[in-house]
Task: structure prediction
Amino acid sequence: MLNTILLNAGTIDTGSTGFMLLATSLVMLMTPGLAFFYGGLATKRNILAIMIQSFVSLGWTTVLWVSFGYSLCFSGGEGGIIGNLDKAFLSGISIDTLWAGNGKIPEIVFIAYQMMFAIITPALITGAFVNRVTFKSYFIFLTVWQILVYYPFVHMIWGGGLLAQWGILDFAGGIVVHATAGFAALASVLYVGARVDRNSTPNSIPLVAIGSGLLWFGWYGFNAGSECQVDNITSLAFLNTDIAASFATMSWLLVEWIRERKPKFIGLLTGSIAGLATITPCAGFVPIWASPIIGTAAGVMCYLAVQFKNKMKWDDALDVWGVHGIGGVFGTILLGIFASKAINAAGTDGLIYGGGLFFVKQIIAVTVASVYAFIFTYLMLIIINKVTPVKVSQDDEKVGLDNALHGEKAYDDGVL
Result:
């Protein structure tokens, strides 16, 4: 079979195109996986309320992305903060248009791939404020946060904007996805306050395991797919992802085992997500020998972050800040240390290879992104609350949001 097919607008690499369609599907699967992960961790009266917040993003984010989101992220605005509307409603893009980034895949494939990132990023935040936020306020939050937080950072880093021209690297979303979502989650928690019952236990650890497995599986598309073609860097990102996740899984398990005298299954699963989040910015820029170091450090660092959160009594119910926020920040900083141009010519050299300035730039960029996401989210919630109540009533919280907000229940009476 021929490796390429001639089209009117150029030559399409069928191998890379097929791989990117698969990677897109894997990243799409991560959002239902996240819903299962969060749904299992929630109490039985709030399973549907947390899961719908992930699934609604599949629909609504697609509407926003096709209408103007893709254009704002990837059209014009070179060296700026945001793009333009030249490609709104996918104007000027045909099935024959190749993505200008490498000239190998159709632009419509790149649009779909990046759309899956836009879908899952705000959904990550929802685990922090489980069973405390009204659906109407969340829907407004989902819309505004994407437009004014996610889109600008996508453009600035991946769309040829300000941070890209400054030399900032982020292979698959340490800054763009995890740091912004994690610190937005912390702002949300501080705004809405604690749950009435903070000692609520997960309703289904097996469901958490299913969600975790789907996330890990989908993350291969998340990281390896970010190369946007099939080459040696694709393979590097794939293997680095698995190694880091595995080492983080074991380091979290062992630290928690030592501290609490028993190996915890939820801790093991959470550790895997911490490793995946931390390796995300590094996956295609660091040598394989660095991924066990990054994974081990991620498991320990994110575990300690969760313990610090508990000490501060921040009611981040599902540890979004400690796992995704700290994981994204820590991974971005570690990229500044371990990046190697010898591994990826499109990257740069990190601190251990003499790239001290790059290391400093990475720290500044992730700090600015985290602070901006935190402040904007807090202020946005204040404004949303003037339009519609953000926090549910105590009565609704006690009844459970599945029934109070949605008039549904996850299980028949007597099942749980």
